Amino acid sequence: MRVTQTDIELLKKKVLQLEKSVYLLTQQVYSTNEYSSFNTSLQELKFFDFNTEVLRYVIQWIDKFTTSDLQPPLGIYINGPFGVGKTFIMEALVNQLSSLNIPSALVSVPDMYRKLKDTFNKGTTEAFVTYLKTVPVLILDDIGAENVSPWGRDEILGPLLSFRARRNFPTLFTSNYNLEELYDHFLGTEPTNKSHMQARKIMELITPYVTCFELSGPNMRIEVL
Q1: How close are the terminal C-alpha atoms of the chain, in Å?
Q2: Superfamily the domain 5-224 falls into
Q3: For residues 150 and 38, is the Cβ–Cβ distance under 8 A?
Q4: Ranges for the IstB-like ATP-binding domain (predicted)?
Q5: Which of 103, 187, 191, 205 lies at a CB distance of 3.0 to 4.6 Å from 161, suitable for a disulfide?
Q6: Does residue 146 carry a pLDDT above 50?
């Protein structure tokens, strides 16, 4: 399925409608990294000691996403140690998309699960999940930092990734884990045949749909302190 400019415009309208119904919730789960800002631009990131290959690719990715009426680009998977700037880069990407009037969401995965549990009885859970499924660009920040549960892995994350993959909606990720380590994470603390099967399903919805980068360097958060 190819996504056209018309599709993107229709998605924008749907996303705006959904944002109205889950505004407070989404404001709480958007990344608020205390050492970075959504005002940071990708151009400004060139002054930091980042992997230039990653920055170059992210800039090209935005250009391809905003100009191509054909197949949208694959998502991006950036892994690396704590504090090296993974979320920093994604926040700059969100800011750039916002300047182009393209809806996007950067969601902390652990926070996402906590907020979904909090909203079970408030009538906003379905609207929020629909928002995540249909927003044109979704960034799942810090995947792998959440506690693994069959509910989160099989009932929330699996259907979310499946929906987006079937429609070629790009999903981007940051993680402390590479893909092999992420698979081990999804097995849980007591792996079973079922958890192996479910972990494979999740990885089949991530691995073919992303271009991977490993980010290394000093812990920027410690340096700031």
Answers
A1: 47
A2: P-loop containing nucleotide triphosphate hydrolases (3.40.50.300)
A3: no
A4: 76-186
A5: 205
A6: yes
